[in-house]
What does this fold into?
Amino acid sequence: MLKSEQQTAYQRDGYLVLPHFKSPDALQALRQRADDIVDAFVPPATKTIFTTNEQVRSVDRYFLDSAANTSCFFEEEAFGPDGELRQAKALSINKIGHAMHDVDPVFSAFSRGPELRQLAQDVGLSQPEIWQSMYIFKQPGIGGEVGWHQDATFFETTPITVTTFWFALEDATVHNGCLWTQPGSHRGPLRERFVRDADQVTMQKLDATPWPHTTTAIPLEVEAGALVVFHGLLPHYSAPNRSSASRHAYTLHVTDATAHYSAANWIQRSAAMPARGF
Ligand code: FE2
It folds into this structure.
């Protein structure tokens, strides 16, 4: 799948952009399925389920259960002072998560296949296990910021193996909240760890190394269909979307089964629903 210079670039930079990885038909099928899921979603009575910034999660039963199902989360700015949605439900959802790749046939088909299997091998995942899927809407006008973080914070293995597969379902630009990163910054330490103990989760500070500065970070502007694959230690960020264009993306978080998966990670799977590969 990857040429040797691409493998070299991935090792050097901590990420790689693969344009035109998914066909327009594949993108359309996933977008339609996401639309249908949101359409069928009946918001629970308590509206405490929104989440935007991964560092400030609203942790409740709905969130914890989403580790093994298909759940919808609102944008933080979706509700007005009266507690009512400010715009249509379809334009108010922050993301769908976190197990569509296992419980939804359309998502499963998008999330697997020989190309992804080969790519996983090429980036060092000898026995890939997909733990999490997220459909991120980054809605026009209210799409929230996702602050600097490393995905290894949420998927600790020994050694660290988590790798992110980030699919652009629409063009991602500096205007609608594309990813930002600093090439090579995956060689820094893991700064935080998101630890679950029963139904409690806490963010533990591990290392005070500062996040990349916006003057040294670069935007990863990509066209719809591109796949950005990146190392779990790579710090990344995305700005709020104040434009009139949405920025749909789909992500998978994948570890290597040869590494030890921490029992303190918030997503655990049972024998009845084991984490599977590509
Ligand atoms: Fe992330």
User: Anything to note?
Assistant: The helical segments are 4-13, 24-40, 61-65, 100-103, 105-111, 114-122. The first strand starts at residue 15 and ends at 18. The radius of gyration is 18 Å.
